[in-house]
Amino acid sequence: MKKSRFNFCRKLRSLFSEAFLVLVVTFFVVSCGKLVDDFNFDLVMTPDWSSEFAIPLINSTYAIGDFFGDSAIEFVQTNPDNSISLVYTSDEMYSSRFEDIINIPDQFFNYQSPFIAPPLPPGSSFEIMLEFPITIGAGSPEQRLDSLILKNGLLQLAGQTNLNRDVTELTVKIPEIIHSATGEALVMVVSLNNPGGQQTNVSYDLSVPISDYKFIFNNTSYSTKNQITLECMLKIVGDNNPDQSPYNFSITGSFSDLEFEFLFGYLGAYNFSLTDSLPITLFSKTIGGGIEVGPDAIDLIVDVKSSTGMPVTFGTEYFYAYSPVNEPNIVDVYFNGAGVPNLLTIQSPDITQVGETVETHIDFENNNLHEAFNIAPEKLFYKFVGITNAEGDSLSTNFVIDTSRISMQLAVEFQIFASISKFIIEDTVDFDFDKNIENIDHLLFRINTTNGFPLNASIQVYFADKYFHVLDSLITDPDQTIMQGAPVGGPPEYRVTSTVHKMTDANLTSDRIKNILDAKKMILRAGLSTTNEQLVKIYSDYTIQIQLGTIAGIKIVNN
Amino acid sequence: MKMKIIYTIKKLAIISVLLILAMPALFAQADRSMYFLPILPNARIVNPAIYPQYKFYIGIPFLSSVKTGFENTFNYEDVFQKKGDSLYLDREYLLSNLDEKNVANINLTEELVTFGFKSKNNYFHFRIADIANSNLTITKELIRFVLYGNGSDYYQGKTINLGGNAFNLTYYREYSFGFTRQIDQKLNVGINLKYLQGIANLYTKSIDLTLQTDPDDFTITAKSNIAIYSSVPGNNGNDLQPSEIFTNTGNSGFAIDLGGRYIINEKFTASASLLNLGSIKWKENLKSFKTEDPSKAFVYDGFNLDDFLNDDKLDQDKVNEILDSIQNEFDIIETEDSYKSKTPSTLVLNLDYNLTPKDQFGFVFGSQFLEELIWPSISLGYTRKFNRDINLMFSYTASAQNYFNLGVGFGANLGPVQFYLINENAIAPLMFSKASFYVLRFGVSLVFGNNDKKEITVTEQTPE
Fold first, then answer.
1. What are the Cα distances from residue B333, in Å, to A66, B283, B288, B341?
2. Mind listing the pLDDT tens digit for each residue in A39-73?
3. Cβ of B89 and A557 within 8 Å?
4. Edge to edge, what strands does the sheet with A51-63 contain?
5. From the CB of residue A493, how many other CB atoms can be counted at a distance below 10 Å?
6. Domain ranges (residues) in chain A
7. How far apart are alpha carbons B382 and A521 in whole angstroms?
8. Chain B residue at shortest CA distance from A67
9. What does the alpha-carbon distance between residue B305 and residue B226 come to, in Å, rounded to a whole number?
10. First vs last Cα of chain A: how many Å apart?
11. Do the beta carbons of residue B421 and residue A23 sit within 8 Å?
12. Which fold has domain A51-68+419-554?
């Protein structure tokens, strides 16, 4: 009985073990399959809601100086009453150096002179002086040279004589050409020996650098201005050669490569020009709209520097403002009122200021630039023409140094005092939207402005492809004012009386977000006008606070 | 006497259920069902006073005991709704299924080496095991914040309290020396002394954060009280090498298990144990983040545009600098302070009732303690001892939000080879999407010198 019971228990245990094993294996297989099915996240549908996360992005406060970064041509100037002026300064224009303006051409001369040399017994000698005048010309007939200090030049002389003496010496002297260091006149000596009188002619050839010499003209001694004298002295030694007088003497020569270091005298009239343009960057992005500049809001300041010792008068060949968008596209600028020719005479160093630079500062307050600025000019174009000794006072004494030149710089001081109406500016920046936005359902941009400027602004942002085809825009109502101009008090201050807050929302739905995925350019267009389109002034304490925040609707699941 | 014991059991059960229902964030990780397979020498993991019935046992390296499990207060279907073949994530549905505090807990144990032997009335044990615990506490408010966002109408003008969340992760190696002593025929006591080699730890002492978003300009005002400590190989910024993990001996700690087991009479056995009472001092690979001044409010109202730009182009380096500056604005400082983390200690109370020598009922109350949280559970078990070599058990476990978990397990000796498998939620593998509780443990050991034969024989000869 006990054994039977034992066998039964064994069988039962074996059966149980097998069943349990099958159960465990089945359980494992089934549960694994179930696990895969249960946790298949691909089956999770995109919900019809999205989490909305709000975050402030930008909070910036700007004063006027932040909008106009100081540059080489533009800076912001705070006036004594704290009003703001934008100062546009041109590049400094330089005339050529006067060594290039006053050109001393090569001077040529050619003389022939017969002379008689009496028979001389051997051992005796005889001297004959031949003088030849040379006129140095550099410019107009009125020009009077008092002195000319050279830094370069070459004197070349050549000639011949049929004198048949065994021994003859030619000494050439120019008393007006003096060595700068020794003070001695230029002297050249050459032998004209003709032993036995064998040669028909005896030639000579001289070449002397005169870079260390100066010309001292004695205009009172001669009837002709700018004259020097070539003194040729022949010293003849007696011999037994036959007398064949009269003899001939020829001399030809040149002063070449003459370059002055200093030039004194009355130099006459020379012309030169200064041409440039001045960008008015305030209007560089303008694509339309009107501006009316307040009275006396713009000064034109001309600064001239001269190291030229002669009077110079400037006029303008043209000076105009140009706007490609506003008519009339060109407005002529007058320094002293409409119709009055633009003339300015500058200060020059006098004879006691050789080597110095004298500055001339002229403020043209009666200019008509306010009319020119009404077209919101992109640039001012101008060409100044200068003329020396315009008054023709030939008794005066000028000087120039080889490095002398005249420079000019213009400044336009625009005190921001104007009214603006529907003024539109536009700019384009490269743009590349982050493509990883699959989970973004919508975006809301909220712009809060607290405006202390008397300026209304409506802003639109266009998203465009690389060919500038507009794909979509940020703000559905382009005329919506994003920035409300602050109220303005009366004259003469035209000051803002309080700030104005404005909140604007711009929504981008998922469809619109997809539209701008391929955008490569962002075109920013702003319409500006002053508060009530009235005259306003801008002061240094004006600020605007711009806060940009966003609410991003995020799809937590996006299958 | 019997009535008194039954009354005591009832009282314990009622208290336990009340505790479970009352505590919103509770779960237990004690190996409850080990009590219901007395054939296993591994049972002393839950009570060092358990005296194995073998003269000698040794675990198969790396296979002697492998445990994985999770205990959450929510499950997959609390999150997703199934309609037809599709799953839907509905905010209100999800939130309605969440408690104010929700807990997810994952536990992994890999026993590398274990053996034990008997010497007269003493039993000596040695064990090396890798243990990883992760506890995530996430508040309903944080989930709502993620689902709705601070820009939603729901949060317009409201202060969002994102405090009370925590994430703790500990991975350590335990070197345990155990000793069990049979004091007399009725009383056993035991102790495990453990040296703990801390390998990695993330410890959130506090993550308190309040957030308020201005409805007009979205300015965010926040207050934080954050204290997060970590000791992770690779924190030094170098590429993590596997060798760094296993030779990371700079973080050491100690823990102790204490237990007692008392045979009240032939029918009742009571036992109690206090497990893992200790801590680890983390001293290496440290990186911690703390709010310097929790009383200070951080206000973020956007960045100055000029800070982003360089030559009118977005400067990524400056963006990164600005992002770094957020941390500074929060006054969150980064330190390398050493710190101590307590091991999750557990109290286990057990009462067994032997209906027959082969049929045993058991009751286990377990409660784990970690920081300010107490995670209790109760289990009821039935064990059938087919003979000295096979135990089969069925269990019922109630834990937080998990009041109906039926478990099954067995332990079997095939000669000296002992297998066991315990599944504390037998249904879960068939419906994991509904499961928020699951514990699976299995292992293979070699056992020698089974002393239980004589006891069972004796018991069979003297049935009650």
1. 34, 18, 8, 20
2. 666 777 778 888 999 988 888 888 887 777 666 67
3. yes
4. A51-63, A543-554, A440-451, A500-509
5. 13
6. 51-68+419-554, 84-99+268-415, 103-266
7. 75
8. B306
9. 30
10. 70
11. no
12. Jelly Rolls (2.60.120)
Domains A51-68+419-554 and A103-266 share a fold: yes
pLDDT at A22 over 60: no
* A479 CA to centre of own chain: 38
* Cα–Cα distance measured from residue B74 to residue A211, given in angstroms and rounded to the nearest whole number: 105
Subunit contact B429:A34, Cβ cutoff 8 A: yes
Q: What is each CA distance from A53 to A442, A517, B152, B303, B373, in whole angstroms?
A: 11, 21, 7, 17, 32
Q: Where are the beta strands (DSSP E) in A365-496?
A: 379-388, 398-401, 406-415, 417-430, 440-451, 455-464, 470-473, 481-483
Which tokens hold the place of A488? Answer: 């303005």
- One-letter identity of residue B421: L
Cβ distance of A556 and B306 shorter than 8 Å:
no
CATH topology of domain A84-99+268-415: Jelly Rolls (2.60.120)
Region for B433 from its dihedrals, namely left if φ exceeds 0, alpha if ψ lies in -120 to 50, beta otherwise: alpha
Q: Which of B419, B418, B274, B393 is nearest to B36 (CA)?
A: B393
Q: Do A20 and B410 touch (CB under 8 A)?
A: yes
Burial B313-343 (b: 16+ CB within 10 A, else e): eeeeeeeeeeeeeeeeebbbeeeeeebebbb
Inter-chain Cβ pairs, chain A and chain B, closer than 8 A? 119
Q: What DSSP character marks residue A378?
A: S
As given in the structure block, the two tokens for residue A194 are: 């003709």
Composition of chain B by helix, strand, coil, percent to 5: 20, 55, 25
Distance separating alpha carbons of residues B169 and B230, to the nearest angstrom: 9
Question: Cα–Cα distance between A500 and A484 in angstroms, integer?
Answer: 6
Instruction: Say which amino acid occupies A341.
Output: P
pLDDT tens, B317-344? 766 676 666 666 667 888 888 999 888 8
User: CB A488: neighbour CB atoms within 10 A?
Assistant: 20
In terms of DSSP bridges, do strands A358-364 and A298-306 run parallel, antiparallel, or are they unpaired? antiparallel
Q: Does domain A103-266 bear CATH number 3.40.50?
A: no
ipTM for the complex shown: 0.75
DSSP annotation string for B131-144 = EEEEEEEEEHHHHH
The verdict on a CB contact (< 8 Å) between A34 and B91 is no
Percent above pLDDT 90 for chain A: 54
For residue B64, what are the contacts with CB-CB under 8 A and spacing of at least 6? B42, B58, B111, B113, B114, B443, B444, B445
Residue of A nearest to B434 (CA): A38
CA distance B251 to B239: 20
**What DSSP line would sit under A307-353, residue for residue?**
--BS-EEEEEEEEEEE-SSSSSSEEE--SSSTTS--EEEE----GGG
DSSP letters of A128-163?
Answer: EEEEEEEE---S-TT-EEEEEEEEEEEEEEEEEE--
Interface of A with B in 24-43 (CB under 8 A): 24, 27-28, 30-32, 34-35, 38-39, 41, 43
Residues 137-166 of B with CB under 8 A from A: 146-152
Tokens of residue B440, six digits: 């699976």
A53/A97 Cα distance (integer angstroms): 68
When pLDDT is cut at 50, 70 and 90, the band that residue A80 belongs to is very high
pLDDT at A323 exceeding the cut of 90: yes
